[in-house]
Amino acid sequence: MDIFEINEDDDQEIVEFLNYQRRTYTIRMRVDHMTLWDDHDFRIRFRISKAVVFQVLEYINHQISSFTDRNHALTSIDKLLLTLRFYATGNFLITSGDFLGVSKTTASLVVRDVSIAIAKLRPIFIKMPTTEREISKLQRSFYQIARFPRTIGAIDCTHVKIQSPGGPNAEYFRNRKGYFSINVQTITCPNLKIMDVVARWPGSCHDQTIFKKSQIYYNLINGKWGNSLIVADSGYANSRHVVTPFLHPQNDIEELYNESIIRTRNPVERSYGVLKRRFPVLSLGLRLKLETTQAVIVACCILHNIACDNNDMDPPVLDIILPENENINTEEQQSESENAR
């Protein structure tokens, strides 16, 4: 009896296979968004200006251009705009694809390829000072904020929500707030530009651990920037090149010291607010493969820097309420003696 049932099932599958008809090939209308919208409406929909889009396209055009025009292939500018629309909405890929008249599969491939192409621009747009002149200029800029000397950067970490990456190590990405994330470390200058980004550590990692495993840490202890300092919060260990506030200030001098550090490191907190308002996908969460997610984070940081270079500092106001930028530091992992305060 079981044999006959198996045969009937197999016959049914064969019949369904023989009767299968492919869906009709359809070509959707594609809108020229560069000419359709004025500058104001364009920035609302793509979060950056047309000038920034053209500048980015000059750098990545050769990497994302199609090799043929057959089958109504997407142009380079369409691929870039589709990716920017995904960054600007944090929506499903199928929604971003509908915006440009392509399928979900095509949208997924485009977002991956364009994000990787933009991320490859990191050595050009995300870099620490290298010359004595650049270091002195940066120190003067930080000194003008709250008179804290020798500072070349403000460091902190922020969590970017992701879907569970799956596999045996998925729980490493669950932070102490209970959701999956990547803990992203950045170093920022006074004009909110990002000078360094590390986007490879799971959400359960502590800020100090990420810092001690980064190239910046080894450059600091090896004296690459001389006696320069980086200001941080109490989640980091106080050291020769990293300064943190007093945990329990005892007098007015220590209170004034804390106030100066807090004001000096304020740009890194503000940069997270501007970055996540400009690209809400970083606040709402990413539902991509882990490698693509890392490329998207770095790409957003690069686009943020290019926008800052073009004086596009204030992204348009959104009609949605974004999650708060929570600073998730597990300070209990460090003792007061480690902070030397």
General description of the model:
Its cofactor is a divalent metal cation. It holds the Pfam family DDE_Tnp_4. InterPro entries: HARBI1-like (IPR045249), HARBI1_dom (IPR027806). Keywords: Hydrolase, Metal-binding, Nuclease, Nucleus. One of its GO terms (molecular function) is nuclease activity. With about 350 residues, this protein is α/β, with parallel strands linked by helices. It has 16 helices and 5 strands. It has helices spanning about 1-20, 35, 40-45, 50-65, 75-90, 95-100, 105-120, 120-125, 130-145, 205-210, 215-220, 250-265, 265-280, 280-285, 290-310, 335-340; strands spanning about 150-160, 180-190, 195-200, 230, 240-245. It has a 5-stranded mixed beta sheet. Strand 2 (about 180-190) and strand 3 form a beta hairpin. Helix 5 packs across helix 7 and helix 7 (about 105-120) crosses helix 15 (about 290-310). The radius of gyration is 24 Å and the shape is globular. The chain starts with a helix and ends with a helix. The model is unreliable at about 325-340 (pLDDT under 50).
